[in-house]
Design goal:
Largest sheet: 4 strands, mixed
Order of helices and strands: HHHEHEEEEEEEEEEHEEEEHH
Distance between the termini: 131 Å
CATH class of one domain: Mainly Alpha
Strand content: 25-35%
CATH architecture of one domain: Orthogonal Bundle
């Protein structure tokens, strides 16, 4: 095969550079390798592709064109084309589960994982081309099969060169798999105020330690809380069961908040209490919303004898002379009720 025919076999012009030749060879190998192409002429085409590559390689690759330096008295408008940088890989999708406390104040999460990459040593081929004819098949890409008695029985693809005819070896880095599994580990700072479904982007190039091979896209998932419910405006709501007698007595209780336990003074005329600024951030890095506490007074299902005695004493203490209630609200109601009863009694007698 002449040098010009070799370039034509790879679909290139005779002025193609080394990078263009290798790219064309890898593309054609991926298309015509018998492991991937079941057509009848795949083996023959694969042999021609490898021979063309070897012919160009032995003749020497053409150097990349260089751009002459511009004249000193004229500004340079066009410089030599730079080697393109490797494109960024598709971001790695991850989820991070946060408690409401972690999401409200921000936190640092350690992420670990594994990702499968194309082997950089062999570009995913699983083998490396050594050059020259394969010693097992003499460059033909095929070897004679032998039947049970040792007699020739047709031809089969050479396993050593995969039908290419060119000497090669199994890639030492991926052991022929064409891929490598890479572990990564990094710490990610979660900003305060993130919500359910928020998407956080982490630049993998800036990660320290053992960074991932690509950027990370982290989806936030808020865990259900044992006590709290989060409103859209950042308000935290919490229902707290309290001793009914303590509620009547206006006692002080401890209630849970995102900032820890806080004291609330009960009032027997109120069931809802607002704690300003103790809720979730209304906006990221903004002021916190309120924390709403809803108390649920709990009374005994059955009173003890002592409790019955104390309640009877308490009821009696709320009445003045003649059994008239001391509280003006109850006294007014009692008077209205007696007046109504008297009127209803007279009407019944007249009938």
């Amino acid at each position: 095969m002449t040098n010009d025919n070799a370039f034509s076999e790879l679909g290139l012009g005779s002025d193609a550079t080394e990078r263009e030749v290798k790219a064309a060879w890898r593309r054609l190998v991926s298309q015509w390798h018998p492991d991937r192409n079941s057509s009848a002429d795949a083996v023959a085409r694969m042999q021609r592709i490898n021979r063309a590559f070897e012919e160009i390689r032995n003749a020497g690759f053409r150097a990349s064109p260089e751009v002459a330096d511009p004249p000193v008295d004229e500004p340079a408008e066009t410089q030599a084309e730079e080697e393109p940088t490797e494109p960024r890989r598709r971001p790695i999708q991850r989820k991070v589960k946060l408690t409401l406390e972690e999401a409200a104040s921000g936190c640092i999460k350690a992420l670990r994982g594994r990702t499968t990459l194309t082997c950089a040593t062999c570009d995913g081929a699983g083998h490396q081309v050594l050059g020259g004819n394969c010693t097992h098949c003499g460059g033909s890409g095929a070897i004679a099969k032998r039947n049970f008695f040792g007699w020739p029985g047709g031809m089969t693809e050479c396993a050593a060169c995969h039908g290419g005819g060119i000497a090669q070896r199994t890639c030492p880095d991926c052991q022929g798999a064409g891929t490598q599994v890479r572990a990564y580990q990094l710490k990610v700072r979660i900003p305060p105020g993130v919500r359910q479904g928020d998407l956080l982007h982490v630049d993998g190039r800036r990660a320290r330690g053992n960074p991932p091979p690509a950027d990370l896209e982290i989806r936030v998932e808020l865990l259900a809380h044992e006590f709290f419910e989060l409103d859209e405006d950042g308000t935290i709501r919490c229902e707290v069961p309290v001793d009914g007698f303590a509620w009547i007595a206006n006692r002080t209780i401890d209630v849970p908040t995102l900032m820890g336990l806080k004291q609330v003074a009960l009032r027997r005329d109120r069931l809802s209490y607002s704690l300003p600024g103790l809720g979730f951030p209304a906006k990221r890095r903004g002021a916190n919303a309120d924390h709403i506490v809803i108390v649920k007074p709990v009374f005994p299902e059955a009173l003890t004898a002592e409790q019955e005695h104390l309640l009877s004493h308490l009821i009696a203490s709320a009445s003045g002379e003649g059994g008239e209630p001391t509280d003006k609200r109850l006294r007014a109601w009692s008077r209205k009720q007696r007046a109504w009863a008297r009127g209803a009694g007279r009407a019944s007698k007249e009938q």
